[in-house]
Structures are given as C-alpha cells and as structure tokens.
Design a protein that fits this description.
Elements (H helix, E strand, L loop, with lengths): L3 H18 L2 H29 L2 E2 L7 E2 L3 H7 L2 H33 L5 H13 L2 H11 L6 H8 L14 H26 L3 H9 L4 H12 L1 H17 L2 H6 L11 H9 L6 H25 L6
Antiparallel strand pairs: 1-2
Helix pairs in contact: 4-8, 4-11, 5-8, 9-10, 11-14, 13-14
Length: 306
C-alpha cells in the first residue's frame, strides 16, 4: 500500500527512540560536558584554594604549611570578632526590619489600581544599579555639609551628623543603604506571589466584612509563606556575603565600626601586606557560617507546609 513503508519506518524510529531514552548511559553522556565544566571551574578551584587556607602564602612566593594557625590567628583577632558581630547585625536587620517592610510594600503595591507597573519599576531600579553608583549617591545624600539629610535636620535646629565618619552612625547608615539597594528585588518576588493568588478569595473576604489589614494578615500572608521563607533565606545568605557596599562607602571604617567578615578578608588578602592563605581561611569560615545559618533556618522556620 502507498505510504505503508514510511509509516513502518516512523514506528521503528519511535521504538528506537524509546529504547534509547530508557538507557541511563544516554543521560550520563548528556550531562558529562556540564559536569566537566562544573568540576573544572568550581570544584577544582574550591578544593585547591581550601588547601592554601592551611599555609602561609602571599600569592607569589613559595607557600609554607602551617596547619590551623590561620584559623587560630583569625579567631584571636578582636577585629574579626567585631566583624562577625557586624554580620550578625546585618542578618538581624534583614530579617526583623527589611523582610516586614518588603511584605508591607508588596501588599501595598498589589492593592494599587493605577500606575502599578510604575511602582514596580521604581522599587526595582536600585537593585540594578551598580554598587559604586549607589555608594557615591548616598555619600552625597549623607554628606555632613551639603547632604540633603543634614540640610533637613538643620531646619529643626539639629547639628550636622557625620553619618559615615561617626562610629555610632556609620553602621546604621550602611544597613539602611544596603536595605534600600536590595529591597526592591525582594518586593518584586513577593508581589509576584501575591498577584498569583486567586482574586476570588480576597473578594469573598471583603464581602464578608474583613478589613484591609485582616485580609492581608489572615489571608495574603499565610498564602505566600513559601516565598517569604525564600526571601528570608536569601536575606540571610546576602547578609553573610555583604562586602561591596561596605568597601565603597566606608572601607570598613571608621575604626572598624562597619567591618564585616568579607571586607576583613579583602583587607587581609589584598592589603598592603597580602596574606592569601589567611584570606582563604576567612573565606572558608564565611562559607561555614552561611551554611550553618541556612541549615538552621531550613530545619526550624524554613519548613513551610503547602
């Protein structure tokens, strides 16, 4: 019959394809190139760098194996202990201040009927700006003589505040700027989750007489708990990795008031007397802290029932 041969060929090809896809070696062959690149550019550098954490090495001359001395020296340094404390303050600020504000603004924008896209774009813009640009911008805003903040305070008879030069105000200033930079990104995430909720539930609650606060607290927030959990976890990991805004705005000063673990690493590994081995040991400590905090959160507050 005409057309029977192509029909049989297509059936045979289909059977061969099914047989091929059932072979696990086919899938292994497909992922081998990715695994090779992953091991070459991630696993291998990480393992080799970890070795140098146990050496005294400036990155140029021959290294000297010194065991755990780098880790001992780091934890005996009061500046590093202070840096750990500052990282913890970043985490507390992110979880207790930043996340509630993110949820509040996301719910606020979700209930706006006009110019919603404009508001979404506006809050997201700081997240795509370079940290250098943000540092220069806020350096002007917080300038003690010509900054708008101190100009506003002077109207109420308040003396100029040296926001980035006073150890009492430098860290709060950096915390606020860092939150301003990244809140927009998280607001968009939470907003997407809110807008994906069925509108019928919110309308039914409104018909039943629930106020806006009640609908937000008892309906919206419980339904977006999974995305809130993700935002909290990302905020914790981000607080452990914060460094660029600190280096741009204060370089860890004044007198170590804004020093964090990552900026301490940069200053030790790439400073006047570079010690790559010590810097690598600090990077491992940061990795261990981030891993521990993330695991603790996931095992306690991170378990959200669908």
């Amino acid at each position: 019959m005409p057309g029977s041969l192509p029909h049989r060929l297509s059936r045979n090809e289909g059977r061969q394809m099914k047989h091929t896809l059932r072979n696990p070696w086919v899938y292994l062959l497909m992922i081998v190139p990715t695994l090779v690149l992953y091991c070459l550019f991630f696993i291998y550098p990480m393992v080799t760098s970890s070795f140098y954490a146990f050496t005294d090495w400036n990155g140029l001359s021959n290294y000297k194996f010194i065991g755990f001395n780098n880790f001992i020296d780091v934890f005996n340094d009061s500046d590093f202990i202070n840096a750990i404390g500052n990282n913890m303050l970043f985490i507390v600020f992110a979880v207790c201040v930043q996340v509630p504000l993110i949820i509040f603004f996301a719910i606020l924008i979700a209930n706006v009927r006009k110019l919603q896209r404009l508001y979404k774009t506006t809050v997201f813009i700081p997240s795509i700006l370079s940290t250098s640009v943000i540092g220069i911008l806020w350096g002007f805003v917080l300038h003690p003589n010509i900054g708008p903040v101190n100009k506003l305070l002077s109207v109420f008879g308040i003396d100029p505040v040296y926001w980035l030069a006073d150890s009492a105000w430098a860290l709060p200033a950096v915390l606020v700027v860092n939150a301003w930079q990244w809140m927009g990104f998280y607001i968009v995430l939470v907003l997407a989750a809110i807008l994906a909720l069925p509108k019928e539930m919110n309308e039914a609650a409104e018909i039943d007489g629930a106020s806006g606060f009640q609908r937000a607290w008892y309906l919206t927030v419980p339904l977006i708990k999974p995305i809130i959990s993700v935002v909290v976890m990302l905020s914790i990991s981000g607080a452990m990795r914060v460094v660029d805004i600190v280096l741009v705005m204060t370089q860890g000063g004044p007198v170590g008031a804004t020093e964090v673990m990552a900026s301490y690493l940069v200053n030790e590994a790439m400073g006047v007397n570079p010690n790559y081995g010590l810097g690598t040991s600090i990077s491992l400590i940061i990795f261990a802290f981030a891993l521990l905090l993330t695991a603790l959160y996931q095992s306690t507050f991170g378990k959200v029932k669908e």
